């Protein structure tokens, strides 16, 4: 912070050099002033639904929204300052935080210390500094966040890589239940069987079992919007992207394609030309990893009543749609062999085929 006059006696300050540092000194009382920036915490607040909390502060901007921020006070740690500012300005209680980055904001001589924090959604508190509060979906942020003469937009940009790309198990269950209300059907139990299989296989392979469960549970979430064939792929992809769940969006896209060719889809091509092209382009760009392969395998053994033999399941699909791409058929069998080698046990033993039921 730059001073022109002494805070003790009011005398005009003079330049002085101490070692390598440029400083100010009061010629009257000899107090020295370092050229030190003021520390400010800057906080992106995220709730359990992956929503982001922004503030309307008219003294900063009348049409844009900002993140939580505030000066540190004497005697507190950075983490304490983060929790205090969030509670004072929003009423939310921080349960977890993640340091993001720091940078110098030259126009005001501030050192900005950036965090993401996680809270359980609660009623807002009144604050003299805040005119309004609002929870936003991630895809809505860019059009409303302040950037001109404000650090909020920069902080959001830096936080993006730290944001969770798939929901918690509880939130995934809620999303599936909501979808079931909109479009009930056997697909819901099929999704639960897929999730069960994905979790069990992941546990044997050293993969993240919670992530595998969530991806399996939501792979068909596009069916929330109606009785669709190919269109459920594009609807699920767009829906999950709108919530900021990029990992789930990817699975909504890849689960039906164990190769990168859209022509191998089993079912009707009922998506729009625009969405069909979107699927085609994104499949070509995607380098599939073990989570993509895992959900493809689990989708290929998950019936609505329980775990099925993979050949029986593919024959069932073939009988309903009249055909089954032979390359896709063989790739499913290759996936079974691939994961059995990774697990070191039989696939059907790993997923408890004979006993597990989704209800």
Automatic annotation (TrEMBL):
<dbReference type="GO" id="GO:0019677">
    <property type="term" value="P:NAD+ catabolic process"/>
</dbReference>
<feature type="domain" description="Nudix hydrolase">
    <location>
        <begin position="36"/>
        <end position="164"/>
    </location>
</feature>
<keyword id="KW-0378">Hydrolase</keyword>
<dbReference type="Pfam" id="PF01966">
    <property type="entry name" value="HD"/>
</dbReference>
<dbReference type="GO" id="GO:0046872">
    <property type="term" value="F:metal ion binding"/>
</dbReference>
<dbReference type="InterPro" id="IPR050241">
    <property type="entry name" value="NAD-cap_RNA_hydrolase_NudC"/>
</dbReference>
<dbReference type="InterPro" id="IPR000086">
    <property type="entry name" value="NUDIX_hydrolase_dom"/>
</dbReference>
<dbReference type="GO" id="GO:0005829">
    <property type="term" value="C:cytosol"/>
</dbReference>
<dbReference type="InterPro" id="IPR006674">
    <property type="entry name" value="HD_domain"/>
</dbReference>
<dbReference type="InterPro" id="IPR015797">
    <property type="entry name" value="NUDIX_hydrolase-like_dom_sf"/>
</dbReference>
<dbReference type="Pfam" id="PF00293">
    <property type="entry name" value="NUDIX"/>
</dbReference>
<protein>
    <submittedName>
        <fullName>HD family phosphohydrolase</fullName>
    </submittedName>
</protein>
<keyword id="KW-0479">Metal-binding</keyword>
<dbReference type="InterPro" id="IPR020084">
    <property type="entry name" value="NUDIX_hydrolase_CS"/>
</dbReference>
<comment type="similarity">
    <text>Belongs to the Nudix hydrolase family. NudC subfamily.</text>
</comment>
<keyword id="KW-0460">Magnesium</keyword>
<dbReference type="GO" id="GO:0035529">
    <property type="term" value="F:NADH pyrophosphatase activity"/>
</dbReference>
<dbReference type="InterPro" id="IPR003607">
    <property type="entry name" value="HD/PDEase_dom"/>
</dbReference>
<dbReference type="GO" id="GO:0006742">
    <property type="term" value="P:NADP+ catabolic process"/>
</dbReference>
